[in-house]
Amino acid sequence: MTDSVQLRVHGAEAEPTLIHLPGLHGDWTLLGPFRAALGGSACLVETTYPRRPEWTLDDYAAALDTALLERGIGRGWLLAESFSSQVAWQLLDRRKALGGAAG
């Protein structure tokens, strides 16, 4: 099992960045039609969570924050489905507490 969040980035960095956080299914498998509809008009960041049932929301947020920063993604619009809405709030709280940019 991996302990890291996996990211796939599509589109030009000069375009607005959309960071998709998946629902309970935990990965990017359902995002293909949305990515196609964007047609390159945004930089789309797709996320897959590791299968770690013992993780807390803070674990997910910390791993996501690390993965984004490792890819040089410090800002963007969060598109959080279902379960990931909780991760998004945790990420924003984390960034605020650390004094960093808020998503």
Instruction: Give the ordered list of helices and strands.
Output: EEHEHEH
For the report, how would you describe the main beta sheet?
Answer: 4 strands, mixed
Count of helical stretches: 3
- C-alpha-based Rg, rounded: 13 Å
- Give unreliable regions as ranges: none
Strands side by side in the biggest sheet: 1-3-2-4
Task: Give the overall pLDDT as a whole number.
Answer: 91
- What spatial form do the alpha-carbon principal axes imply? globular
Going by helix content, strand content and strand pairing, the class is: alpha/beta
Give the number of DSSP strands: 4
Determine the strand fraction and express it as a percent band.
Answer: 15-25%
Helix content: 25-40%
End-to-end distance, in Å?
A: 27 Å
Characterize this entry briefly.
The protein has 3 helices and 4 strands; from the N terminus they run ββαβαβα.
Element layout with pairings:
Blueprint: E1 6-10, E2 17-21, H1 32-38, E3 43-48, H2 57-70, E4 77-80, H3 83-98
Helix pairs in contact: 2-3
Essential attributes:
103 residues; alpha/beta; 4-stranded mixed beta sheet; globular
Describe the structure.
This protein is an alpha/beta fold. The protein contains 3 helices and 4 strands, in the order ββαβαβα. It has helices at residues 32-38, 57-70, 83-98, and strands at 6-10, 17-21, 43-48, 77-80. α1 (32-38) links the parallel β2 (17-21) and β3 (43-48). The protein is globular, with a radius of gyration of 13 Å. The termini are far apart. 24% of the residues are buried.
